[in-house]
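Final report, Chapter 2: Outcomes

The project's central promise was a pipeline that accepts a single protein chain and returns its three-dimensional structure in a standardized token representation, suitable for archiving and comparison. That pipeline is now operational. To close this chapter, we reproduce one record exactly as it appears in the project archive, with the input sequence first and the structure output second.
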Amino acid sequence: MGLTIHYSLALKSRSTTKARQLIERLRQRAMDLPLQSVGDIIDVAGESADFQKLPKGHPHRWLMIQSTGDVQRGRYSYSVSPTRVIAFTIHPGDGCEPANFGLCLYPSTIEIEQNGVKKRIRTGLSGWCWRSFCKTQYASNPDCGGVNNFLRCHLSVVALLDYAKTLGILADVSDEGDYWQKRDVESLAKEVGEWNEMIAGFAGKIQDQIGQKLEAPILQYPDYEHLEAKGRDWLSKPLEE
């Protein structure tokens, strides 16, 4: 739970050379942004692209988990391991989740089992694509640099998505801070403040109900009690009709 940017990338061509070139250009743009760090490009195929084949402590396990696609069939959802992954990781700053950017190829069919019967289904995943997200909210922790750190992290991720758009590979963005749509820094700063208050209030309420302390990033804020009090006020307000 927390303010997050969701995004997806796509390239209709199946050219590996073109996909690699575009991700290299995207990474080069990342190198020019005020990010904490930018990882190397990972280019893997076969079993190396399947996170289930990697040990839990593998440095690229989260990237590989995010590279996994899915296909929905009725009530069921099935994971689809990529056949090729070209991607890199950025670390925007303290308190912020890492963000992964890349392109993947997926098999046209997978084998599934329903009611003890195995069969093959089409995945519908064609061309190169990517779907991911980055939770930026907790970069606003005062111990990490507060709102200024959050703004730097959030705006850097957006700047990279802007460049992906100029490269022609941006498919979709959903920014819970509304900055992608509004481009209003003041509004974004206010938004993350309200998120902090509401989540702190919610965490406090849950702790009261279960009678034990939660493990949640918001509890690490030095001003948590102040945020919680404001958040409880938010939660006590009746919903607008």
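Archive annotation: The chain has a mean pLDDT of 91.
This record, like all others produced under the grant, will remain available to the consortium after the project formally closes.
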